[in-house]
Amino acid sequence: MPSRPSPSPSPDPGRPDRRGGQGEERLSGGFIAEVVRVGDTVRRTPPQNADFVAALLRHLERVGADVAPRHLGTDERGRQVLSHVDGRVPWRDREDPAYFADPALTGLAALVRRLHDACAGSALAGDAETVCHRDLSPKNTVYRDSSAGPLPVTLLDWDLAGPGRRIEDVAFAAWHWAELGPGGDPAELGRRARVLCDAYEAAGPRPVALPRADLVDVMLDQLDGTWRGIAAGADRGEEAMRRLRAAGAADAVRGWHDWLADHRETVTAALR
Fold first, then answer.
1. To the nearest 10°, the Cα dihedral for 252, 106, 202, 162?
2. Same CATH topology for 20-83 and 97-271?
3. Under CATH, which number does the domain 97-271 receive?
4. For the chain, which residues make up each domain, given as ranges?
5. Do 2 and 229 form a contact (C-beta atoms < 8 A)?
6. Is residue 132 classed exposed, middle or buried when 0-12, 13-18 and 19+ CB atoms within 10 A define those classes?
7. Which CATH superfamily is domain 20-83 in?
8. Which candidate, 200, 262, 253, places its Cα nearest to that of 228?
9. For 1-57, what is each residue's pLDDT tens digit?
10. How far is the C-alpha of 27 from the C-alpha of 25, rounded, in Å?
11. Considering only CA atoms, which of 156, 198, 143 is closest in space to residue 174?
């Protein structure tokens, strides 16, 4: 399943909302995995592909990509232990337009480009173009203030990371940092996708040309896979997916898919 959107609201973004175990502060979010802070570390429910995620985060630290928390092992309860990254995470949907402004999009594109460049040609990518995060969203991004407004500095929640194409993460970011469905502007979605593509291609030390003609189709595939994945997980009895479906996430994402399909020509024209 390519995405796991979570309903809002949550408590204050990036701040503890209630106590966990002794010395633990449970952090906002964590709709799928339990996330707590212990001192300068974060403890999370381990992902299904825990070994791959650990290897990926260690690789990113080793090459100095500076796009992710450091992987520090596991604790006595078997939880993933990561370094804590200072900053703010916009847990509430659309809480501040600055998180979605062009400077934030440009900064996000640079982060994603560093990730992809760091993994291209590595054993982690295998025969694929690179390793993709596969769950990019504002809620999985740490921001810090700058003269240009809040800018992304770190990507969180690597549970779905795996080999893939560069365009997949760019497409995923495009529909998470825009408004889809009723009230959304397809031309604005296309413009934001163009900003992401332009910034991504310009961010690295060498030219990279994204297959922009594929972008809308990739977004449609991701949206389709997302609502179907939620529904299938709920049918299997997975508690997190049942809660997502009960909150209306599957129906919402399916509606976004149909909206994008109806407006694909407008989005494509603005993208170009």
1. -50
2. no
3. 3.90.1200
4. 20-83, 97-271
5. yes
6. buried
7. Phosphorylase Kinase; domain 1 (3.30.200.20)
8. 253
9. 344 343 332 333 333 333 445 577 776 655 566 789 999 999 998 988 999 999 999
10. 6
11. 198
